[in-house]
């Protein structure tokens, strides 16, 4: 159905993103979401060069360049939603993008590993604004399955970033130092800042804004966290994100250290990311027919089966490159069926608290995912056993969380 059809339940709210049409709106949302994926994935080929340049010899310690960003990203989301509920989406988003650009410049000039981590932390804090505000803007304009469809379409475009970002990073460091990567992130941030300033209207009318007095903020957070479906799907999203992040932080070591791919690392990573992108696109086509629960719950169950197969092969020493790529690609495909649906299910009861809810959901899922993903990455010992074992545990934990959230009525 056309997004502007009078019979679409999104049509009245969609006027809130005029003068942008539907396609430009989805493109902007995808571009803003891509800030985070780009800031993480483009770094992967440069971790070794950063470690050498700044005197960090331990490969697992170099992973903190990614983890510091995610800690800031998860923490920053706790406040952004309330602020955007009070002052509106547009001004908060513009301020966040401006700080993102400044932090990227700081990283580009960092003379030490500690200062680089500080810049990454601030960059993550700033990137919380586009993450929370874009979700809130979509919730301002759409609801239910229409919201899930918009998020899935945006995710389809957004997921092209993990496919391309490592190759872009690899290309940059062929001709320049790792600092040029942060210059590239600075330029991307400036482009998005200009686009938002020129085209995005305010989607939260003054009459729908909320006070940010301490009492009301605490009450809003308590209401969001007290909603079983919201908290449950935020936690489930976090455990599934942890499985993806566990692979992400150790992917360079796995592909170059275990399988010896060298410069072909970015190509292998792109194949895995492409599976996620394809599944996000497929989800946008299927969610209206099958529903969010059936698709996402089924994806988690299949993920558990594939992770069991991977773990058995890893434990017995038979996990060579072809079966690893097939299993990993299948699992990342399934993860792509989860994120937009889990987020929409968590947000659905929170239309009156969209900004605060987006903050809480994003913060919980990111911090949980960063914590368990960091644990998987730090457990890397030159084998695939930590990754495969972590996948089994996380998939079973996710199913348990979903079962409690839905009171045993899965699918």
Automatic annotation (TrEMBL):
Indicate whether Transmembrane helix appears among the record's keywords: yes
For this protein, the record's Gene3D superfamilies field holds:
Multidrug resistance protein D
Superkingdom, taxonomy of origin = Bacteria
Membrane spanning stretches: 25-52, 64-80, 92-111, 150-175, 181-200, 261-283, 295-315, 321-342, 354-377, 383-405
Gene Ontology molecular function, alphabetical? xenobiotic transmembrane transporter activity
Q: Which GO terms describe its cellular component?
A: plasma membrane
Per UniProt, the keywords (alphabetical) are: Cell inner membrane, Cell membrane, Membrane, Transmembrane, Transmembrane helix, Transport
Indicate whether Cell inner membrane appears among the record's keywords: yes
- InterPro entries, A to Z: Efflux_drug-R_Bcr/CmlA, MFS, MFS_dom, MFS_Efflux_Transporters, MFS_trans_sf
Where does this protein chiefly localize?
membrane
What biological processes does GO assign it?
A: xenobiotic detoxification by transmembrane export across the plasma membrane
Looking at the record, the residues that make up the Major facilitator superfamily (MFS) profile domain are: 25-406
Q: How does it sit in the membrane?
A: Multi-pass membrane protein
List the subcellular locations. Answer: Cell inner membrane; Cell membrane
Pfam family membership, one: MFS_1
Q: Which family does it belong to?
A: Belongs to the major facilitator superfamily. Bcr/CmlA family.
What's the protein name? Bcr/CflA family efflux transporter
Q: What is the lineage of its organism?
A: Bacteria, Pseudomonadati, Pseudomonadota, Alphaproteobacteria, Hyphomicrobiales
């Amino acid at each position: 159905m056309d997004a502007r059809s009078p019979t679409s339940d999104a049509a009245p709210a969609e006027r809130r993103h005029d003068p942008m049409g539907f396609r430009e709106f989805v493109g902007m949302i995808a571009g803003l979401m891509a800030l985070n994926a780009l800031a993480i994935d483009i770094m992967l080929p440069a971790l070794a060069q950063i470690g050498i340049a700044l005197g960090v010899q331990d490969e697992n310690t170099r992973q903190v360049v990614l983890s510091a960003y995610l800690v800031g990203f998860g923490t920053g989301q706790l406040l952004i939603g309330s602020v955007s509920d009070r002052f509106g989406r547009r001004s908060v988003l513009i301020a966040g993008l401006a700080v993102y650009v400044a932090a990227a410049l700081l990283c580009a000039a960092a003379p030490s590993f500690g200062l680089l981590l500080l810049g990454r932390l601030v960059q993550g804090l700033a990137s919380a604004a586009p993450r929370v505000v874009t979700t809130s803007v979509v919730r301002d304009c759409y609801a239910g399955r229409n919201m899930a469809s918009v998020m899935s379409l945006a995710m389809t475009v957004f997921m092209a970033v993990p496919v391309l970002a490592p190759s872009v990073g690899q290309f940059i460091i062929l001709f320049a130092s790792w600092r040029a990567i942060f210059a590239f992130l600075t330029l991307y941030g400036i482009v998005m800042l200009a686009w938002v300033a020129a085209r995005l209207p305010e989607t939260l009318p003054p009459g729908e804004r909320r006070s940010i007095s301490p009492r009301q903020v605490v009450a809003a957070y308590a209401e969001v966290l007290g909603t079983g479906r919201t908290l449950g799907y935020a936690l489930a999203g976090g455990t599934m994100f942890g499985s993806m992040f566990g692979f992400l932080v150790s992917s360079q070591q796995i592909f170059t250290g275990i399988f010896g791919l060298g410069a072909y690392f970015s190509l292998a990573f792109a194949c895995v990311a492409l599976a996620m992108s394809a599944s996000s696109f497929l989800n946008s086509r299927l969610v209206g027919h099958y529903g969010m629960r059936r698709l996402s719950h089924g994806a988690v169950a299949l993920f558990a089966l594939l992770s069991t197969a991977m773990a058995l092969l890893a434990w017995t020493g038979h996990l060579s490159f072809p079966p690893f790529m097939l299993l990993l690609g299948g699992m990342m495909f399934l993860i792509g069926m989860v994120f937009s649906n889990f987020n929409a299910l968590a947000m659905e009861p929170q239309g009156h608290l969209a900004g605060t809810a987006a903050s809480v959901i994003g913060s919980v899922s990111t911090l949980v995912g960063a914590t368990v993903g960091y644990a998987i990455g730090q457990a890397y010992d030159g084998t695939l056993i930590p990754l495969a074992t972590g996948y089994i545990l996380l998939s079973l934990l996710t199913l348990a969380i979903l079962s409690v959230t839905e009171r045993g009525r899965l699918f």
